[in-house]
Amino acid sequence: MDGDLDLKPKVPLPAAFVRQEEALRRCREMLSRLPPMEGSVKYERAWGIEESLEQFQCLMKQHELQSSVGQSHVSVRQLQAKVCALQAADVAKAAREALGAAQPDLAAVMLEAKSAARQLSLALRMQKIKERHSAERLKMMEEEIKKSNAEMTSLREGIEDVSSGGGPPLAGPIGAGKAEVGANRKWFYCSDCHVGGHGQRFCRYLLKRPNWRIYPSERWFEDRNGQVSHCPLGKKAVDFTDETYFSRIAMHIKGRIWLEDKRKLYEFVPDLMPYTYVIQNRQWVGEVPEKVAPDAPPWPWFLKETDRNWGTSVVCCANPDECLQRSKDDATYVVQKHIPDPLHYYNGEKCHIKFYNLLVGLDDGVTWRLYTYRDGYLSISPKAWSPTDLSKECQVTIIRTKRINDWPYWDKVYPKCQAGVATVIKRAAEQGKLEGRNKVQFEIISADYIVTASEDVYLLEFNTGPVLKDAEDSPDVHDAGMVDGALHIVEPWEGGDPNLWDLAIECQGVPPKPEEFPSDA
Fold first, then answer.
1. Is-contact 316 339, C-beta < 8 A?
2. Beta strands in 151-211 (DSSP E)
3. Which residues contact 249 (CB under 8 A, 6 or more apart)?
4. Residue 264, C-beta contacts closer than 8 angstroms, at least 6 positions apart
């Protein structure tokens, strides 16, 4: 609608009309050259003082520029309407003169009058639309500035509150025991220290609670490799941040390597997993698999790097010798034969279960609680399964394909998956593989399970930091309820509920050594 007013006369017009046509053409050209009334900078939550100030300055500058652009758009539309008004007046004058002639051409007069009236009406309407659009855009930008200004005020108040002792106790060696947190605190604070994982996501969920605020972060130090670490401003403790040293609640389990590393996991729960062999530096370590007979029926073998997840390191081979050949120097792998008689999805595709767990270590350093989620996902291969097809599309299932709650086997399989993970956590705790802290620690971890046709389950691996989706990004299928429920279990509040989390087991681990207990960095 920007400037396409069709004012071409139907009959030859006087010189004044030609000048008006030229003026309207120039108006259209001016509108085409003006920048659009669209601000590119929008408010986004800032986690640091510098970031917040920079965003506020950008929003203010954008408001200033867009105000000028908007006024220019309106001015051109006003000029266009004035030109149309002059043209309408000239047409009216010409019509009066034509009607006084001896033989007036009434059809031509009416045509010109209608055309001029229509163009004037359109120009006035376009002027009003542009004025309203300009005002709306400026109002939206003012709202963005208002949000940014409110955030800076909140950050300043948070700094003042924490500095005056309104936050949790000191971080680091002193720690923050449960009794020291204080039930009468008005505000609780979270900070994003850019460690990665789900830290910022958990902050966003905690900030939905009315008594949680952002506490800004700052650069802490830079190592020899140029890696920059951040901490809460002033090296203060906060209630939650992804930098464990400064957090009252730790989002990483100490000893998680025993769950992440497939080789370490197999060391203490071999009875729950497919039989596993190890290759290190292109050599078998320990037991060597038997040679596959030339006339043996084909069956897939999997070569997996021990410390990588998401299927990125999985190679499907025809036999153990091929696994050895395809391994690399300076790498450690586990080798597993495909389970017998796998349970297929409806059209014969291979599938596995994404089973979600919440592991919580209490601040006594000894007690562990495992919760399992009653809903999960199936990962389904694109192609029907065949033991002779070694392609990833057939053998490797990675992507969460669909919710599992309508899968007919889920009611029978869920308790078996729950019991399997409970066994893993109980053994890891009793053997001291999971290490206690002097603060609450937690982690949402997914377990990959594959099921046989007889409904037995095999644990394949754990994924710390699994894929999680928020309602804002994926309205149809998301994990907002799971995350909210987990955070309510870890840090309860009056407006929360545990959602579909079930307490699977509470067990006791090995007490930390006294000299090691205070240090949890």
1. no
2. 188-191
3. 239, 240, 439, 440, 441, 442, 490, 491
4. 257, 258, 306
Rounded to whole angstroms, how far apart are CA atoms 111 and 116?
9
Going by C-alpha positions, the residue among 477, 475, 445, 472 that lies closest to residue 461 is 445
For the chain, the distance separating the N- and C-terminal CA atoms, rounded to the nearest angstrom, is 61
User: How does the average pLDDT of the chain come out, rounded?
Assistant: 85
10 Å CB burial of residue 330 (0-12, 13-18, 19+) is exposed
Higher model confidence: residue 39 or residue 188?
188
Dump strand ranges (E) for 224-376.
228-232, 238-241, 247-250, 276-280, 283-285, 301-305, 315-317, 332-337, 349-361, 367-373
Q: Each residue of 33-43: b (16+ CB within 10 Å) or e? A: eeeebebebeb
Structure tokens at 381: 């291969």
354/363 Cα distance (integer angstroms): 29
pLDDT digits (tens, 9 = 90+) for 205-261: 999 999 999 999 998 888 878 888 889 999 999 999 999 999 999 999 999 999 999
Phi, psi values for residue 350, rounded to 5°: -75, 145
Task: Select from 302, 362, 366 the least CA-distant residue to 334.
Answer: 302
Number of other residues whose CB lies within 10 A of the CB of residue 84:
27
Instruction: Give me the percent of the chain exceeding a pLDDT of 70.
Output: 87
Assigned token pair, 186: 């008005």
Find tokens 């990588």 and name the residue.
308
Question: With 0-12 CB in 10 A as exposed, 13-18 as middle and 19+ as buried, what is 203?
Answer: buried
